[in-house]
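Milestone M4 deliverable, item 7.
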Amino acid sequence: MSDSLPSQRDVQNACRTAGLGVSAAELHGGLCGWLAGGGADGPEWLQRVLVDDSLPAPPDETLEQLRRASVAQLEDRSFGFELLLPDAEATLYERSGALFDWCRGFLGGFGLAAGQAPPLSEETKEALADLAKLAAASPQDGGDQEDEAALAEIEEFVRVAALLLHGDCALGPRHRQRLN
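Output delivered:
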């Protein structure tokens, strides 16, 4: 099982080819939110994440690789989880916009899988509220080195928040079942 994400460009092309109305970042965020919320990992993930039962199973190997890598990374005990975002060559505007799209997708997928009252620690509740603030943000034109550094810190926060939520809602219940 490969834990390497396909490129953002390849996922964007696969989304366009499949006629999906989401960006690569938003789709990855939605998938990760679905998995973090305890959603089932299976061939129907695309229908569940995009709330469209008429969608076929992922028609593209790129989207299947995205699923496999996301599952592996979320389960990775060495915290190798990555966000699917544009690379450093993209503008600050494009990268921050993709990060906010990722957060919107994550919140949607998480809400679908976890429901209205997921079992969250206080720390994780705060992280979820902060993700909601980021999901409502809009990218700004321009920026300097300070903004670049801030974006890197926000990306790291989002990555850790996703892992915390996955721990509370997916890993925690699994471990409790094994103990009983």
